[in-house]
Amino acid sequence: MLQAVDATFGYGDTPVLHGVSLDIPAGALVGLIGPNGAGKTTLLRLLSGTRRPSAGQMLLDGSPLSVRSRAALAQRIAVVPQESQLAFDYTVLEVVLMGRYAHLGTFAVEGPTDLAIARAALEATGVAALEERMFSTLSGGEKQRAIIASALAQISSSSRSSPGGEILILDEPTAALDLRYQLGVASLLHDLHARRGSTIVVSTHDLAFAARVCRTLVMIKDGRVLASGPVDDVLSAGRVRELYDVDVDVVRHGSSRLVVPRGQGDTERRA
Amino acid sequence: MNYVSAMLRRQPLLRHLVLLGSLAIVALPVHGQEQTRAPGRIISLVPAVTEMLFAVGAGPRVIGVSSFDHFPPEVERLERVGALLDPNVERILALRPDLVVVYRSQTDLIAQLGRAQIPTFVYGHAGLADVTSTLRDVGARAGAAARASTLASDIERRIDVVRKRFAAGPRPKTLVVIARDAFALRGIYASGGAGFIQDMIVAAGGDNVFGDTRRQAVQATSELIITRAPEIILELRGDPIDAATRAKELRTWDTLASLPAVRNKRVHIIADARTVIPGPRVAEAVELLAGAIHNE
Amino acid sequence: MRSIRTRILTAVLTFGGGALLTILLAPLIGSTPISVRRAFDWSVPFGDNPDAQIFFIARLPRTLAGALVGSTLASAGVVFQGLLRNPLATPFTLGVSAGAALGAMIAITFAPALAPSGIPAAPLASFAGSLLAVGIVYLLARARHRGLSTNTLLLAGVTMNAFFSALILFVQYFADFTDTFRILRWLMGDLDVSSYAPLVSTLPLVIASFAAFVWLARPLNLLSLGPDAAESRGLDVTGAQRVAFVSASLATGAAVSVGGPVGFIGIIVPHLVRLMVGADHRVVLPASALFGAAFLVACDVVSRTVMAPLELPVGIITALIGGPFFLWLLVRRR
């Protein structure tokens, strides 16, 4: 449904992505993994239409992203950034309602539908009780959920025909969260995927998180796709060594996969 | 001469006496020299005092003036040494003056000149009467006391003539504008009830509408001007003005068309440096102002 | 929370009512007591009616100027704070007032040589100066990469302020005492326009800017999430930043050309308004415009009466209120 076809991109003279091809079908739960600087964030920007590739194409339902208006794109694809800093004191509900921007005309005001959608989004992310609170007073995990709710409100439509039509992109969602909140986000994403059929793309360098949440993984290294496919196929010791230049063991523990570094230098020295 | 030198040759005692005597004549005034020998290299940072120096005949001894000096014409050939806010100490010292005329507020400069042991004449702005007393002081310092005194008395007499002439008659309410924005009635500064401009107006038989304030300059708002309802408006400027600009500037007052001065066309722009410099030409300035106020 | 429509309406009615009341009362107050009845007594010829003269020539234009300048600076302040994502930004942060001051200074010092005869030079020159400063800041900020980087904007603005201040000192060298005094006075703000002409001539620009502000209300909300987040919500971030920068700068330049750079309005009013109505720009902008008008008119009344018959520059009053206000803000934020 959402595809990158041979996409190339650079900032100024620095090339970041080289001929990346990627296919995200409807209802997918995809993880983008790779080291810092591999080009994950750039790829996310291309996928959401915020930037255009210098070569190649980004397609949504077969047609290029560039032919769609900003508003039309925003109604399908929402991005949850790594961190959210609000310059002013908005309430949680106000922040969520901002997600409805693409659905309203210039001077239109949010109506009962928008309000209902916003509240539903808050329910879905489990922070409905925080509606009237000031955003700045929330904990890190609660803020994350509120922003996810805002993104959901953005891509929700009362008249959506195709399930999986809404695409949620998250950039390093666990970077600033502790373990409890990480697990919370993981189960939230599963929930959204299961109940709403949303298509979810998660970019992360936390391999365990990626393995826990996602069904398929795409490995990016040096601006190229190293591997893509089901989690167990991609998350192998060999692949991880290719990606990070580190020897690891991939251990299954229940439904989780642990990536354990093998043969650390200092343990050898101590021994 | 031949006789004297012949006598001195023949009478040694006389020779010694004459020698001693001449030494005495030379020695005696040495002490007095520091007090009464006129300064020969004068620098003046105060335009009003520069005029005074020239007026009492010390002009040839003036070697440096301020950036704002323009009268008498001879000063244009003189060295410039800065002014109130930016006196150029190096240049002043380089000219090796033996008297520097400074403003009272130039405390740093005064201290520096003191350390260099250069005598200073400290000037302070004040009222009309102080012009003549300053003139006398300047004359005394410059070694032209007599001439200064004569000139001062002359000035006082002339002002007195004007004063007596209009003392008894009606005093028109006068607004004296000393600065404002070009072509707009904004940023208007008027003469207040203190300072030499106020004194000149009083002498010239006018009634300063801001004479009740105790300041030299008043920021006059349109409301204040309307309230004081001047019958005559005098705009004093130091620089000349061409006819076209003068006409346009006069028209600017039409904004306050209801003022008696504007209605009766008694608004005058006096572009004459004499009216804004408290120097020896104040008597002429008073006569000029009296003419404008009493419509002569 | 009540619906946004209700909130906007309530804010406009309350603040609008307050502004109207202030504007109606202000011309009646001053150092000279006047009688309203006499001022409006048409049977007396205008030339013989000092009450009418004071009301219509001295006080009414001044009150209207205060309303215009106050509402413009307050709303421009809101827009700049939204653009720079910083509640401490003011309409003067990006160099507008320094450019305007330089322009006015040049006009005041060299007026006889430069003035297009017949037209007051200072307002025109100050507007030109502010355009110059703003233009340079804009070009500097744009040069870096696509879009307007707010960091670069800030740095460029601070640099402009410093550079123009140095130029001002340079020009001051050529000014004599009265010029310097008048410039200082201009810098402290002066609403005594005494005619309706300056108001009429700046009104079209102000109205155009206000129209832009209306459009900017929602984009500013989104911008406060950060440019990337705003972009992904569907906002044309670069376009919105451009509109915000240009409209707020022009409005500020126009306001400064009327009354000089009156400080603190652009930061006190938005802060107080946000405390009262929340952060949604659709409420904050109209409320700030109305409150700004009332606030400056009230400050002007104080400046005219507290040391009557002499007048304090209105900028001193706003600064005397602004200083303690900031201290209170700082204490409160902790």
Give an overview in words.
The complex is a heterotrimer of chains A (about 270), B (about 300) and C (about 325). Chain A is α/β, with parallel strands linked by helices. Chain A has helices at about 40-50, 70-75, 90-100, 110-125, 140-155, 180-195, 205-215, 230-235, 235-245, 265-270; strands spanning about 1-10, 15-25, 30-35, 55-60, 65, 75-80, 165-170, 200-205, 215-220, 225-230, 250-255, 255-260. Chain A has a single domain, classed as P-loop containing nucleotide triphosphate hydrolases (Rossmann fold, 3-Layer(aba) Sandwich). Chain A contains ten helices and twelve strands. The longest helix of chain A has 18 residues, at about 180-195. Chain B has about 300 residues and is an alpha/beta fold. In chain B, strands 6, 7, 8, 9, 10 and 11 form a six-stranded mixed β-sheet that branches. Chain B has a five-stranded parallel β-sheet with strand order 3-2-1-4-5, with helices on both faces. The longest helix of chain B has 25 residues, at about 10-35. Chain C is mainly α. Chain C has one domain (about 5-334): ABC transporter involved in vitamin B12 uptake, BtuC. In chain C, about 75% of the residues lie in helices and about 0% in strands. The radius of gyration of chain C is 20 Å and the shape is globular. The interface of B and C includes residues 68, 181, 183, 218 and 226 of B.
